[in-house]
Specification:
Structural class: mainly beta
Number of helices: 0
Strand order of the largest sheet: 4-3-6-7
Number of strands: 7
Distance between the termini: 44 Å
Shape: globular
Largest sheet: 4 strands, antiparallel
Length: about 100
């Protein structure tokens, strides 16, 4: 049974062009990644909740809805056994 989580993705960045805000990252160096989970800051709980699930290879950059308030996001890699990587460092952005 696989109980080893994959390594997290790297180089998470926000970009904005033509009113579209995007979140991009470099794939996890682990070879067994099945998909990625994007978590968005949840102001009600003070933690993060699942925002979206992206297949492997990741659809990066990932378009985000514009927001008047910057939000924090983290990305985690998930392997075929369901093991989830540590989160990336939170990145704040997303306001258009």
């Amino acid at each position: 049974t696989d109980t080893t989580p994959p390594l997290p993705p790297t180089n998470v960045q926000f970009s904005s062009s033509g009113g579209i805000v995007s979140l991009a990252w470099e794939s996890s160096p682990s070879s067994d990644v099945s998909y990625y989970r994007i978590y968005q800051e949840n102001f009600a709980t003070g933690g993060f909740t699942t925002y979206s699930i992206i297949g492997q290879p990741p659809a990066s950059p990932f378009a985000l809805p514009s927001s008047s308030t910057p939000l924090a996001y983290v990305v985690r890699a998930v392997d075929g056994a369901g093991n989830e990587s540590d989160p990336t460092q939170p990145i704040v952005g997303g306001a258009s």
